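Predict the structure of Neurturin.
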Amino acid sequence: MFSGSWEYSPLSSSPSSSRASSSSSSSSSSSLLPPAPRRSPRALQHHGSLLSQYSNLLESYTEGEIRQLISALVERYSQAMNSGGHELPLFPRVGSRRKRARARHKPCELRELEVSVSELGLGYESDETVLFRYCSGTCEAAVRSYDLSLKSMRSRRRIRKEKVRARPCCRPLAYDDDVSFLDTYNRYYTVNELSAKECGCV
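Done. Here is the predicted structure for Neurturin.
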């Protein structure tokens, strides 16, 4: 019925050959696409080393220490969320610590601020502004033997009920001239010892 010879070739009709042909066509088409970005082996090794370090660190902790660590992290997170922040760094930056240290150890000096009379909190209602001078800073260099002894007596609970200060405080040594102003009802007032003129550790 058929003229010519026909041979059965299992390779030509097998699914594996069709898959091979399709894979060859797909590989030729995929060679035209840009290669996908891959993470460098060095980054993977660094990431793995960090994970191993943290795992070894956690394994060295006891169960009680891990509980304390978790409770401290939860407390810091809740404080950050209550203050309106999104996150609180576990380890503050060294620069921020140095800035806070410098701010805490500024010497006692005179500063000034322009405020309204109503903002002074003395009970006067007035829109007039005055130059309010105040004392700010620390007095670490002015600590005397009295302050050290008083601090020791407080730590030994020899002085309990009395309200005492065991370190000198930055306070005005002299006050500026009297300040006069008109309130909202056009009444004239004069306030004495309002602004500092000289500051010192007392």
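The radius of gyration is 39 Å.
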